[in-house]
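$ run holo --ligand "zinc ion" --emit tokens
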Amino acid sequence: MSDNCIFCKIAQGQIPSNKVYEDDDVIAFHDIHPIANVHFLIVPKRHIESLLTLVPDDQALLGKVLALAPQLAREQGLGEGFRTMINTGAKGGQSVFHLHLHVFGGGGKAETMM
Ligand code: 5GP
Ligand code: ZN
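-- output --
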């Protein structure tokens, strides 16, 4: 738990979220400002700032986050395909400095993104 981290607070249940999945290690919830008709975030509960601060011990957890993407995407109606995104660092478009995988699809604004 990192002080003043919004995703740590969501992971601890201190701030509500529209959850799509939760286990001991990972939580997934709908993005508050969706860029597609379906847009959710898969978040390791452990506070990892970004891909730039990964340590070898984080690898299994990151593998789990990635492997959950197709499972949760199917459950959210994206079984025919979806996009994923990890923004890294302020210069990489990251605004919440707790690592998260965006999963989105199903039409909407993101269809026109590169
Ligand atoms: P980033 O720009 O860091 O890759 O993405 C952060 C994402 O988190 C944004 O898409 C933003 O809409 C979402 N977000 C920020 N604060 C909250 C929140 O309190 N709840 C939820 N559900 N999403 C949030
Ligand atoms: Zn955090």
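-- notes --
The chain has two helices and five strands.
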